[in-house]
Amino acid sequence: MTPPPPPFTPFPGARIAVVGLGRAGLPAALRLRDWGAEVTAWDDDPARRAEAEAAGITLRDPAAGRLAADALLLSPGIPHRLPTAHPAAAAAQAAGVPILCDAEFLYRAVLAAQSGACFVGVTGTNGKSTTTALIDHMLHAAGRSAEAGGNLGPAALGLNMLGSDGVYTLEMSSYMLERIATLRFNVAVMLNISPDHLDRHGDMAGYAAAKANIFARQTAEDVAVLGQDDPVTRGMAPLVAARIVPVSGQVPQLGGIWAEERMLRDDGGAIIDLDAARTLPGTHNAQNAAAAAAAGFALGLSRAEIAQGIATYPGLPHRQEVVGTTRGVAFVNDSKATNADSAARALASYDRVVWIAGGQAKAGGIESLSPFFPRIAKAVLIGRDAPAFAATLAAHGVPHEVAGTLDAALPAAAAAAFAGAAPVVLLSPAAASFDQFTGFDARGDRFRDLARAMIAGGRA
């Protein structure tokens, strides 16, 4: 009888401290322990510490004395520099211990397994979740071995190990990208850059530098998919050693992929009419589709496989998700729009809307959305910064009211739409959700539940 293969232990004896035991942290600690590492863990929340201890993880506060570890795996949401370094991060820096993200450990494990699996990294201020999911969908539709996760969906260390024919598509936030050390992406996708997370990166230059780390360690054998629809991203070309494929949702790109009206094209001709992809409305999604197609070509997919994958893409929740239609009015959940630039992409997709917006505003508020204000029949505002949004809208003569909560805003918005103001009620808040919800997903879930209950009950 053939004995079972030995356990896979790519990190034998490595001392890894894990701090932050939420969605990604605890699974990472367990996976690293199973892979042979000597894992200690900590979280500022006693309940999460208790959960880890119950799972057999040794608890140790890295900030209590000199940190003795080979690496600190720090949850992406915990700052290591700005606005203030977490005590665990400060301890790691004092001890010269590298601070890493879980995608770095996945990459090292794949190398240790002598797998030639490809790594695709997707980043950008907006659109990275859609593009990540679309690339993964295309690969699965074509019968390829593939896993997707990172900032989207399963954490990197929750993904299955793949063989040399496999592809990992990882959504990479700026928080993750500033914590990679050896990870090299065979295909790196940079969609766009606009102001976001400036408290963590200091300024736009710091934010862009963190994003540009997606191109680190690429060579001429690799592919860099570079968005051309904003100046910051276009300007990154000199930083890239890989072969650049330019992509745009609106402007032809020699040697790249672009959309003319709604026809996705490359130098070889038409790829697909994006009107066949109902989950990808708007110019921004045209660029997302172009980027996904560029990645697909780099990974060896055919034109037919790319077109089929785009046409059958089911979409993601909270990204211009049509949750229902009644009395000629569509209710669209775009709760993922946590900044003005993302909301602009949604507003640009519709001629006339009743807009639900508000929450914790980012720097600059919604003044940058003024070119889209003529599309807003009425705005219904929620959350902490509703008064600031109301002041901006009033200055531009946009009809609005402050509802305060989403539960109050939806019936008010629906009543205006049913009265003929617009055929779309759009939740695209242009603000974070943490003043009233645990995250954008909880906000979107509540909108979906309220809209579907209203539709089912026939209420206006």
Structure description:
The protein has 460 residues and is α/β, with parallel strands linked by helices. The protein has 15 helices and 22 strands. The protein folds into three domains: 15-100, Rossmann fold, CATH 3.40.50.720; 103-311, Mur-like, catalytic domain (UDP-N-acetylmuramoyl-L-alanine:D-glutamate ligase), CATH 3.40.1190.10; 321-457, Mur ligase, C-terminal domain (Protein-Tyrosine Phosphatase, Chain A). Helix content is 32%, strand content 22%. The strands form four sheets. It has a nine-stranded mixed sheet with strand order 7-8-6-9-10-11-12-13-14, with helices on both faces. A six-stranded mixed sheet has the order 15-16-21-17-19-20, sandwiched between helices. Strand 2 (38-42), helix 2 (46-54) and strand 3 (58-59) form a beta-alpha-beta unit. It starts with 14 loop residues before the first strand and ends with a helix. The model has no long low-confidence stretch (mean pLDDT 95).
